[in-house]
């Protein structure tokens, strides 16, 4: 992408109405734009990162056996009355349709997915089933001050699993933990699994995936001896319930969670199956959530410095920032050629070909945008058929021949 | 995909609450599920087709110079008051937030995109700009009886263009017509461009892309001599205004539309630019819509027979339906191998490996689902190292050697 064609621009000033690091940097770097509290537009650079995160999530969900669907955001009151949750979900947006109809904007989708899967599952032979979607969810959050970490409209991957017995459920639940850890690792996030309250649906714990950072809203107690992590909500005393060791507390961002739902929703919708003996049995369910937009915000919270964002390669909008300091048309032609050659080879390049900007502005913008590798091409480097290469996460600058560039970018 | 693992099933019965062909067939074939009038879930097969349509749209929009963004569905009342449209859009869903705040669910996005692009465009050097998104829109349609043709929540691609003068606008507008025709052609739809009312924004015509079919909601007058098409809304007499020839009228589905917006929105938001002489000038705008979900419904309306859907290759969820009639484990192994070989070669195969279904059920399902090619493998064909191959759109059945299959599938 030629930066001269990109319609967004970076901003020097920190937006006054944002207190979170992720929103400040993502807005300044031209990744997102704020429409109102907790509601953002994804600009071209931001959408590319968001889509890369979704792709990683999708791959792991498919690997886990999940089948992708897409449920509506607009849901009728009737389905929420079946489970008694119409008045129970504080953050649900409600709206009126024609003829006295009432709708809720999907804040979660158990009430849609359970009767849906019920239509197709009759026998034990039809189980297990795992379906997921990646879709925008809506929650009327009272405090939406954390940028992409707590949105009123946000991207969510929600998977729901359906099982014939506890053993099958547990097996899938454990596998989902590994899939989640894979996702966060691929996104460059170091997440741990923390036990948390199971809510009203189960006596078991639910499990949260937490990334430690000073800007986190959650408090996690971690055992220094055995490595157990627990959300402070369920910590009764500051000793490890597993080994008796001492626990330390740290702030963290919850980037995902998984819940055993038992038969809470299948019972409500009368969703049972026939076992081998033709006997009706309750279907066991689990739900598994990750917010790709929250993951994006978390990546920025833990990967930045005073100059800007430091994107992990896997989720960077482009992997190379080709910065041209060329002014003469012969040099510009060489820079253009390098851009086109790299792009044809499949390297994702953002090409700073802007004529008006100074070298200082271009370097500052490059640090702010935070692509993994910066390649500078200038009259000076071209005199030696070279470019300057630098990783965003390092201070080391190298001069290498243009023909050697390939081996450094793949 | 192994059909035995697909959680959806086909249905013999036509859903009683659907009058449109597209909804009836898509529901019976397991592509979509109805949550309420005008609101559907996309099941695994349906989502694959929808994504293929979106991909075609995206390619053409990028080719046209469009930059993809993603705007929110939740929009604040204030931006609609700027243009005076808060109370003007009948189909807008409105909802209440905290502290007396009011929101509208995006039914169109001029009020979001205009102030957004204004933030980045100051000079004639920053123009033209074209941005688009593919996103779910919400409209409280009073009559949502046409399946995917008229949804209350539906997929929409909306592009907005910004120009420094009439010439630049016209140039882009004409190019967009070709991009749209390319999209419909790639989707297997034979669309024509019809002149239509420009609405309150312009004295010019807007342009609709219309697909002729008996089930269309629009009436189009077409000149048999010069090929001019006009929406009946603006036809004053039944003679061609271009050549005086006779016009015939036919029903059609509007699958896309493009509008000159003139300065209607840039004026409202005070969006001007500085020209070469440093003088403020108004920005000219255009908007360009295609509904991928409506396109999907339209494809089914014009491509089906009494047995089911007939998908064009480009938008079929899979290109081959491999139907196995094998019962013995040695034969099943060969069928499995063929499935795996084809899949590894990049052929998109839906593999009917179901044990319980009869040959008759499998053939009926295959016709209903409507993938472009059906390949049958059975003890009879295996005895001659062959398979039976048939195109969904033809009655011709051929027996070919398995080793020759490749040349027929690529």
TrEMBL record, chains A, B:
- Family annotation (InterPro entries): aa-tRNA-synt_IIb, aa-tRNA-synth_II, aa-tRNA-synth_II/BPL/LPL, Anticodon-bd, Anticodon-bd_dom_sf, Pro-tRNA-ligase_IIa, Pro-tRNA_synthetase, ProRS_anticodon_short
Q: Where is the Aminoacyl-transfer RNA synthetases class-II family profile domain?
A: 38-312
Gene Ontology CC entries for this record: cytosol
Provide the coiled-coil residue spans.
none
Class of the enzyme per the UniProt entry, highest EC level: ligase
* PROSITE patterns found in the cross-reference section: AA_TRNA_LIGASE_II
Q: Which Pfam families does the UniProt record give?
A: HGTP_anticodon (PF03129), tRNA-synt_2b (PF00587)
Q: Which organism is it from?
A: Candidatus Magasanikbacteria bacterium RIFOXYB1_FULL_40_15
GO BP of this protein: prolyl-tRNA aminoacylation
Catalytic activity line of the entry: tRNA(Pro) + L-proline + ATP = L-prolyl-tRNA(Pro) + AMP + diphosphate
Name of the molecule in the record? Proline--tRNA ligase
**Record keywords:** Aminoacyl-tRNA synthetase, ATP-binding, Ligase, Nucleotide-binding, Protein biosynthesis
The GO molecular function terms of this record are: ATP binding; proline-tRNA ligase activity
Q: Per the record's keyword annotation, is Protein transport included, yes or no?
A: no
Q: Give its E.C. classification number.
A: 6.1.1.15
């Amino acid at each position: 992408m030629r930066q001269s064609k990109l319609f967004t621009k970076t901003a020097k000033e920190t937006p006054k109405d944002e207190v979170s690091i992720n929103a400040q940097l993502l807005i300044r770097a031209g990744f997102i734009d704020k429409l109102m509290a907790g509601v953002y537009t994804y600009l071209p650079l931001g959408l590319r990162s968001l889509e890369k995160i979704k792709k990683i999530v999708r791959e792991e969900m498919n690997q886990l056996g999940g089948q992708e669907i897409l449920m509506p955001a607009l849901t009728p009151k009737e389905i929420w009355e079946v489970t008694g949750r119409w008045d129970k979900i504080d953050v649900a947006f409600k709206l009126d349709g024609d003829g006295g109809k009432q709708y809720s904007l999907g804040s979660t989708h158990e009430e849609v997915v359970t009767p849906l899967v019920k239509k197709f599952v009759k026998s034990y032979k039809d189980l297990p089933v795992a379906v997921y979607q990646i879709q925008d969810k809506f929650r009327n959050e009272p405090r939406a001050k954390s940028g992409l970490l707590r949105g009123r409209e946000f991207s969510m991957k929600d998977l729901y699993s359906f099982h014939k017995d506890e053993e099958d459920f547990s097996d899938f639940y454990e596998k989902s933990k590994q899939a989640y850890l894979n996702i966060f690792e691929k996104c460059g996030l170091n997440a741990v699994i923390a036990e948390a309250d199971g809510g009203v649906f189960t006596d078991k714990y639910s499990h949260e995936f937490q990334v430690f950072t000073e800007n986190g809203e959650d408090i996690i107690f971690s055992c220094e001896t055995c490595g157990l992590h627990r959300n402070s909500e369920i910590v009764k005393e500051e000793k490890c319930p597993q080994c008796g060791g001492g626990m330390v507390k740290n702030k963290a961002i919850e980037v995902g969670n998984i819940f055993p739902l038992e038969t809470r929703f299948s019972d409500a919708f009368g969703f049972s199956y026939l076992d081998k003996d033709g006997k009706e049995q309750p279907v066991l369910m689990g739900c598994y959530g990750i917010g790709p937009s929250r993951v994006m915000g978390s990546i920025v919270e833990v990967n930045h410095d005073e100059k800007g964002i430091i994107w992990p390669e896997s989720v960077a909008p482009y992997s190379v920032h080709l910065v041209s300091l060329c002014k003469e048309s012969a040099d510009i032609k060489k820079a253009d050629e390098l851009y086109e050659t790299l792009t044809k080879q499949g390297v994702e390049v953002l090409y700073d070909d802007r004529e008006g900007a100074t070298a200082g502005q271009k370097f500052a913008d490059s640090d702010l945008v935070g692509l993994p590798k910066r390649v500078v091409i200038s009259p000076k480097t071209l005199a030696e058929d070279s470019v300057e290469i630098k990783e965003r996460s390092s201070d080391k600058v190298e001069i290498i021949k243009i023909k050697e560039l390939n081996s450094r970018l793949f």
